[in-house]
Amino acid sequence: MESMKRRQFLEGIAAGVLAEAALPLVSCVRATASAKKADAESIAIYPKKEGTAMPEVRIEYLHPKEIEERMGACPTLFQPLGTVEWHGKHNWVGVDALKAHALCVQAAQRGGGLVAPPVYGGVGGLDQPHTFVMEPENSLGGVYVRPWVEKLCSEAVRQGFKAVIILTGHYGAGQQMIVRELAVRMSRLLGVPILGTPEYVLALDEGYSGDHAAWGETSLMMHLYPGSVDLSRLGEAPHQGVGGRDPKLYATAADGKRLADRIVERLARLAARMPQWDGATLDRFIAAEGALVDRQIRLAAETGKAWEGWRKIGDGKTITPYGQALAEERFEEIAQIAANL
What domain range is 206 assigned to? Predict the structure, then answer.
C-alpha cells in the first residue's frame, strides 16, 4: 500500500508553495448559490459564431470543408483527457476533462489546430461519491486508457494530422506517467510529435503545482466556466475531497485567468510549431520526454511510491522551468530536469 495518498501529497505541495509566498493573495471572489449555471452559450471560450472573429475549433461541430481548411493551416490535433470525479461540493464532477478541453479550445483558437471531444475515463480517482474509477489509482499498466488513447493518436495521424497534443486534466501519478509514456512511444511509432502532459506543468512558474479541487483547479473553473463554481457550498476546512490551498479562501477568477493565459500561450506555440519540426528536432523532443517519464517510472519502481518522481515539485526550481523549456524547444534542459528529479 502506498504510504502517501494523493490528497496528502497535494496538500504538502500547497503548503510548500504557500510557505514560499510564491503568489500574491487576491481577494476572494465567491459565487453565490443563486448564481446562474454556465452553459455552452455563456462560456467565454465558446463564443457565438455570429459577430465574432473567434474560430470554431471543436472538430465535432465542423463541416468537412471547415476541417480541411483548419488542417491545412495547422495540422495539430488536441486531445483532452479527464474523468468523472468528486471535486468538492463546490465544483462540477467533470472538472478534469472540462478544464482540459477549454484550455485546448483557447490554444487552438490562438495558435491553430483542432480539438477532439474530451475522453472521460482515467487512471484512478478519489474514494468519494460520484467518482468513476476505471483503473487503480497508481496502475502503470493502463489496460483501458493506454490502448484507447494510442488508437486515437493512430487515427489522428491516419486522418492527416502532423502533431498531437494530449492534455490531461486528471493527474494521478499513474495517469501522468501512462499519458507521457504512451505519447513518447507513439511519437516513435508514428513518426510525428505527440505530447502527453497534464496542464499544470505548463504553469509551474506561475505557482501552480497541481491540486485537487483547491485553489488552482477551482480558480481555473471560475475563469473558464463562469458560474460553475459555488463556494458557498463549502463549510469550514478541511473540505471533503479537496487537496491543496483552501479554495474558499484563495480561489479567484483572476488567478484562473493568469494560469490559463500561461498554459494557453505555451500550448498555442507548440501547436503552431510541432507540425514543422524536422527529424532532428523530433528526435530531441522524444529523447527529452522519454528521459523525463523514464526517470519518473524508475523512481516509482525503486521506492514503491508512485509519486516519488514529483517529490521536488514544490521546491520552485527543479521542475519549474519545464513549461518554458518545452515551449521554447530547449529539450536538453528537460533531459537535465529528468536527471535532477
Answer: 6-275
Question: Domain count of the chain?
Answer: 1
At 138 the pLDDT is 79
Is 329 within the bounds of a domain?
no
**What is the DSSP-derived secondary structure letter of residue 205?**
G
Q: Give the whole-angstrom CA distance, residue 226 versus residue 41.
A: 11
pLDDT of residue 7: 53
User: Residue 270 pLDDT more than 60?
Assistant: yes
- Is pTM, for the whole model, over 0.85? yes
Within a domain: residue 305? Answer: no
267 lies in a domain? yes
Q: Which residues, listed in sequence order, are joined to residue 164 by a DSSP beta bridge?
A: 77, 194
Residues 6+ apart with CB under 8 A from 181: 196, 293, 297
User: 244: left (phi > 0), else alpha (psi -120 to 50), else beta?
Assistant: left
Sign, Cα dihedral of 124, 125, 127, 129: negative
Torsional sign, CA 136, 138, 141, 146: positive
Which amino acid appears at position 329 of this protein? E
Q: Decide: 231 and 247 in contact? Cβ < 8 Å.
A: yes
Q: Record the cell numbers describing residue 225, joined without a space.
A: 466556466
CB atoms within 10 A of CB 128: 15
In angstroms, the CA 70 to CA 341 distance is 39
**DSSP character string of 60-82:** GG--HHHHHHHHHH--EEEEEEE
Which residues have a Cβ under 8 Å from the Cβ of 167 and sit 6 or more positions away?
Answer: 78, 79, 80, 81, 100, 103, 104, 197, 198, 199, 267
User: Residue 213: how many CA atoms within 13 Å on its side-chain side?
Assistant: 28
Position 54 scores a pLDDT of: 87
CATH of the domain at 135: 3.40.50.10310
In a domain, 174, yes or no: yes
Question: ω into residue 147 within 30 of 0, thus cis?
Answer: no
